[in-house]
Amino acid sequence: MSQSIKNLLNRQPEFREILNKSTYLSRLQRDFSLSVPPYIGQGSQVSGLTYGILNVVTSNATIAAKLRHLAPDVATEMRRKGCEVNGIQVKVQVSYIPPRVASAPRSLTPVAQHALETLNDTLSDSALKSALSKMLRRAGG
């Protein structure tokens, strides 16, 4: 959030509570994400902390089951980070769509590029050669 928006919201008493709550939830989400394996952090969203119980929504039952299994260790780790978490309540919300993590584009190493070009040169005209040629063109070769 940009500083000017934070300053504007902080100056308005009716928005100050919203800003504080969003900052608090962001911190909880960050600490939670750092306390669990990446696939759980990406498929989960902290929805609040009530009376020491961290409420987490997951995108599917598999992540929920794994998180329930890890809950005591996650709660301990979050307490170590300064959060007052005594337990974790997990709910599955299928409509929750986790944010997509942008993957870095992959590229061929020079050795792989050369090996594939050599292979492409030895192949006769076929669907394989056509697909390999197309892949090499996209890779810049």
Structure description:
- The protein is of the alpha+beta class and 141 residues long.
- It folds into 2 domains: 90 residues, 2-Layer Sandwich (GMP Synthetase, Chain A, domain 3), CATH 3.30.300; 38 residues.
- Helices cover 58% and strands 13% of the residues.
- It has 6 helices and 3 strands; from the N terminus they run αααββαβαα.
- A 3-stranded mixed beta sheet has the order 1-2-3.
- A hairpin with a 2-residue loop joins strand 1 and strand 2.
- Helix 5 packs antiparallel against helix 6.
- It is elongated and about 70 Å long.
**What letter string, H or E per element, gives the SSE order?**
HHHEEHEHH
Architecture of the largest domain in CATH?
2-Layer Sandwich
Integer tally of domains: 2
CATH topology of the largest domain: GMP Synthetase, Chain A, domain 3
DSSP summary: helix tally: 6
**pLDDT < 50 runs, ≥5 residues:** none
Strand content: 5-15%
CATH class of the largest domain: Alpha Beta
What overall geometry do the principal axes of the alpha carbons give?
elongated
The helix content is 55-70%
- Give the biggest sheet: 3 strands, mixed
Could you give the distance between the termini?
A: 42 Å
Any idea what the radius of gyration is? 24 Å
Record the strand order, biggest sheet: 1-2-3
Helices and strands: which structural class? alpha+beta
The overall pLDDT average reads 86
Number of strands: 3
